[in-house]
Design brief:
Bound molecules: adenosine-5'-diphosphate, magnesium ion
Number of helices: 5
CATH architecture: 3-Layer(aba) Sandwich
Structural class: alpha/beta
Strand order of the largest sheet: 1-7-6-2-5-4-3
Low-confidence stretches: none
Number of strands: 7
CATH class: Alpha Beta
Distance between the termini: 41 Å
CATH topology: Rossmann fold
Mean pLDDT: 93
């Protein structure tokens, strides 16, 4: 059976708007949420993750997990699992038992997720972040599965009302 797919594209003009998007998605999240991030170095994957973590109530500093691969944080709403799989081979990633996190009690964000696509849960929110100038970014969002497709619907509705100066 083919999965339901949703799509949305959100442009932000600065880091503050990235924070707002991360807060919005954090508000939709629950235990088991999977957000798969891709985009060049410096696109804003870690920055997005940091605002997301803050929004689910993680206290203290969330560093880039480039060297630690996986970091686990206690959040107020739920735990936060932050991964950066850039340095992993598929074999290494496979041995880490990522499913314990993906199907655990927290929300997971994976940076460079497409490198381990075969290991990701089939239902998830994929986000590709692109530069639009110095501080602007475009978030190209694909929701796979009914729940995440509905997130895209919500994002599109919010995006459509974005130019009316309400922020
Ligand atoms: N709109 C924006 N959203 C996210 N980051 C931004 C934005 N504008 C500027 N930046 C800066 O871009 C850099 C992104 O770095 P980082 O989040 O580490 O990227 P990545 O994890 O994708 O390699 C940070 O220095 C951040 O302050
Ligand atoms: Mg990063």
């Amino acid at each position: 059976m083919s999965k339901q797919i949703g799509q949305a594209a959100i442009s932000v003009k600065d880091e503050r708007e990235t924070a707002k998007l991360a807060e919005l998605l954090a508000g939709m999240s629950s235990p088991g949420t999977i957000i798969a991030l891709d985009g060049d170095l410096g696109a804003g994957k870690t920055t997005f993750s940091q605002y997301f973590a803050k929004a689910i109530g993680v206290n203290g500093v969330v560093n880039s997990p480039t060297f630690t691969i996986i970091k686990e944080y206690e959040g107020a709403a739920m735990p936060f699992y932050h991964m950066d799989v850039y340095r992993l081979s598929m074999e290494e990633a496979d041995e880490l038992g990522l499913d314990d996190y993906f199907y655990g009690n927290g929300a997971t964000i994976v940076e460079w997720a497409s490198l381990i696509e075969e290991l990701l849960p089939p239902e998830r929110l994929d986000i590709y972040i692109e530069h639009e100038g110095e501080a602007g970014r475009r978030f190209r969002v694909t929701g796979i599965g009914e729940l995440y497709a509905s997130w895209c619907t919500a994002l599109n509705e919010i995006g459509a009302g974005k130019n009316d100066d309400r922020n």
